[in-house]
């Protein structure tokens, strides 16, 4: 089953970022302090991911937040970790 952690790690590798480089980018471009160990835990364990970090990674990797939301909500383990996190498109209906 596809997993958000696998997607994020695959995206990092496809973009040729080391963990150290990703940490640097998150700090400098998005003002998010994410240490190398934080990124390793995020990619390799059941550590919860903050909405801010998820949005920054989605922006950096040009990922669709709606698609990510669908993947997260399909995984019971991820759903428990993220609780009521609601990442939606803020389109207004006409």
Structural key phrases:
mainly alpha, globular, disordered C terminus
Biggest sheet descriptor:
none
Q: Helix count? A: 6
The tally of beta strands, per DSSP, is 0
| Fraction of residues in H or I helices | 55-70%
- The average pLDDT is 82
Query: What is the first-to-last residue Cα distance?
Result: 37 Å
Structural class: mainly alpha
The outline comes out as: globular
Low-confidence stretches: 83-94
Proportion of beta-strand residues = under 5%
Strand-helix topology:
Blueprint lengths: L3 H11 L4 H12 L5 H9 L6 H11 L3 H10 L1 H7 L12
Brief description of this entry?
The protein has 94 residues and is an all-alpha fold. Helices cover 64% and strands 0% of the residues.
Question: What does this protein structure show overall?
Answer:
- The relative contact order is 0.16.
- This protein is mainly α and 94 residues long.
- The protein contains 6 helices and no strands.
- The C terminus is likely disordered.
């Amino acid at each position: 089953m596809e997993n958000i952690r696998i997607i994020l790690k695959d995206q990092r590798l496809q973009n040729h970022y080391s963990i150290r480089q990703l940490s640097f980018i998150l700090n400098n471009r998005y003002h998010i302090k994410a240490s190398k160990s934080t990124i390793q835990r995020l990619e390799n364990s059941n550590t919860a991911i903050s909405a801010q970090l998820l949005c920054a990674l989605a922006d950096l990797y040009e990922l669709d937040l709606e698609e990510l939301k669908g993947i997260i909500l399909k995984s019971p383990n991820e759903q428990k970790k993220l609780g009521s996190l609601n990442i939606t498109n803020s389109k207004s209906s006409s």
